[in-house]
Design goal:
Layout (H helix, E strand, L loop, with lengths): L16 H9 L20 E2 L10 E3 L6 E4 L2 E6 L8 E6 L3 E4 L10 E10 L9 E7 L19 E9 L11 E3 L10 E4 L13 E4 L4 E5 L5 E4 L2 E3 L3 E2 L4 E3 L3 E3 L7 E7 L2 E7 L1 E7 L4 E6 L9 E7 L4 E7 L4 E5 L5 E5 L4 E3 L7
Parallel strand pairs: 11-12
Antiparallel strand pairs: 1-4, 2-3, 3-6, 4-5, 7-8, 7-9, 9-10, 12-13, 13-14, 15-19, 16-19, 17-22, 18-21, 19-20, 20-27, 21-26, 22-25, 23-24, 24-25
């Protein structure tokens, strides 16, 4: 193959439909798999994403029977009869009901597949149309041994249907949603981590739907994840325990509070505010007791300082839940909690 002329949409140009399909192909997402790299005009075919992913979704009949319903939506189907022949746009503007063939007899299981398929007589066969259809799978001796039937060359898979012996209706539990999605070049692709493309172009973004995480392609040809940061919001320290004798909460704006921050899978507990202390000299002193579900399995220790002299001390959180101080060189009247944090703490602030 060589330079394709005339370019799409040139004034007074005359060209085949393939050129228009290739124009669409240039606007769609890079596929991101090794198998597609030998055919550089391939795209990632799939269903157009939508709110709660309702486009071309397969569902059972309101009263389950041997039909399924496919909702309205768009699909982009790459041309696979020959390489590099562009992408078809398939549009369905209303629910379509498809009939499932009768189930087999005893010991006959099968997997049927709902597809959006394109037939193009320019390349194969006599039909020039697209269809929503069910491709019946071969019978197998068990549900686990079933496989899909032979799918059309140009097809986007929408759902698999598990058909057991003598089955008389298709319920939601028999339908496996296997749609993949396609977006414009530069768009963020929603995809499960188990089937995510691994050869992304630099800057190509994925949203890993099962992990609630972002993944992108690097200039070096690798992938990297970005992690969402979530925070519980500040809560009163007394939501997770109680002050001990000689300790009390400072007044606003220094009321003691606690917050959990999650970065990816890592949770960090932060504290802020001031605890006022009375009668504390140089001896070890317990300040606060954490409720049972918030106590560590091993003692946690910090280096810190306390008012009025800012002299160094050791703060500890024991396995019995006591937050205390020791090693101070003189009288202590208050301690600021911003000095302390716990990585992967027990309990969850929510």
């Amino acid at each position: 193959m060589a330079v394709i002329n005339p370019p799409a949409w040139q004034q007074a140009g005359s060209y085949p439909a393939r050129n228009d399909r290739l124009a669409l192909t240039s606007l769609l997402s890079y596929p991101g798999f090794l198998v597609d790299e030998s055919t550089p005009m391939r795209i990632r075919q799939g269903v157009k994403p939508s709110y709660t992913q309702q486009q071309l979704k397969v569902r059972p009949a309101l009263t389950p029977n041997m039909t399924v319903i496919v909702s309205a939506g768009f699909a982009y189907v790459d041309q696979h009869d020959t390489g590099g022949s562009g992408t078809y746009i398939c549009v369905n503007d209303a629910d379509v009901t498809l009939t499932v063939q009768p189930a087999g007899g005893a010991g006959q299981f099968r997997k049927d597949t709902v597809v959006a398929s394109v037939y193009d007589a320019e390349y194969a066969g006599a039909l020039s149309e697209w269809r929503l259809e069910i491709i019946q799978g071969p019978y197998a001796a068990s549900a686990g041994a079933t496989v899909r039937g032979t799918l059309p060359a140009n097809a986007q898979i929408l759902a698999d249907l598990a058909i057991a012996p003598s089955q008389t209706s298709v319920a939601a539990g028999n339908i496996s949603d296997v749609r993949q999605y396609s977006v414009a070049a530069g768009g963020i692709l929603p995809v499960a981590s188990s089937v995510a493309p691994d050869r992304l172009h630099p800057g190509q973004m994925l949203y890993l739907t099962d992990l609630e995480r972002w993944r992108y392609g690097t200039a070096a040809g690798a992938t990297a994840d970005t992690y969402p940061v979530t925070a519980s919001g500040w809560k009163a320290l007394t939501t997770i325990g109680s002050y001990l004798s000689g300790a009390s909460a400072a007044s606003s704006p220094n009321v003691p509070e606690v917050q959990d921050v999650v970065i990816g899978g890592l949770r960090i507990r932060y504290f802020r505010g001031v605890i006022n202390l009375t009668g504390v000299g140089t001896s070890a002193f317990s300040i606060f007791n954490f409720n049972a579900s918030w106590r560590p399995v091993a003692e946690i220790n910090w280096g810190g300082a306390a008012a009025p002299s800012a002299a160094p001390l050791r703060a500890f959180l024991s396995t019995s839940g006591n937050l205390g101080i020791t090693g101070q060189s003189g009288t202590v009247t208050s301690i600021a909690l911003r000095q302390f944090s716990i990585v992967d703490p027990p309990g969850v602030v929510s």
